[in-house]
Amino acid sequence: MVRVTREFAEHIASLAQLLLSEDDPDATLRQLAELAMEVIPGSDAAGVIAAGAESWSLAASAGTVADLHQLQLQTGDGPVAEVLRYGEARRIDDAAVEDRWPDVCAAMASEQLSSCLVLPLRTDRQRGGAIALYGRKPDAFAGSSHDIALLFAAQGGVAVRNAALYRSCHRMLQNVQTALASRAVIEQAKGILVTQYGYPPDVAFKRLSAISQHTNRKVRDVAADLVEGRVDRDRFGAT
After folding, report:
1. Burial class (CB in 10 A: 0-12, 13-18, 19+), 139
2. Which of 19, 105, 115, 143 is geometrically suited to a Cys-Cys bond with 135, CB 3.0 to 4.6 A?
3. pLDDT (tens digit, 9 = 90+) per residue, 66-99?
4. How far apart are CA 142 and CA 8, in angstroms?
5. Which domains does the chain have, with CATH numbers?
């Protein structure tokens, strides 16, 4: 049975703050791996894999763990590969006697890692990735340690999902702001051409587009040059 202390509750609650890592998209995964080592008894190393649009993103507490995960992603064999494939937990209690994944167990043994627990990170009941925990002692993730890891993985999936949504919304907002700024400068440029040459607004835009195609530049950049006086306005006259 998991004993919920104040410190444990604070660690679990801190998972919700991981979505604030905006500048580095992998920072959330690294923090999740580091926090897992603090919270889950028996954890000497940890790694997190999250699903991306076209590939997996990886973060680990050590390069050896990252190598273990890369090996499994490349071969499609191992506890991490199976968790990502089936969305079910996998555990190695003692790599010295485990016979399901000999290559992975050999790699673990070479790094003095005996135990492994890999749990799925679910987001909206879909694959979100996995968290892998490694211990130097056999049976490191039995009993209460296993229960704590399950709770951590459940909250971790929410954190990864929230982080992804936050970044997605932030990118969308940036795109909208860029589009509005582009539209504003194009409208200003059209206004200049309407005033100087008496063009109807649609003809003014066609003149901007014609210069854009001729110079192989974006309409927004051509419009900005006109508005800021970096180009001879006569170029936009009727030909």
Report:
1. middle
2. 115
3. 888 988 989 999 999 999 899 899 999 999 999 9
4. 18
5. 6-170 (3.30.450.40), 180-236 (1.10.10)
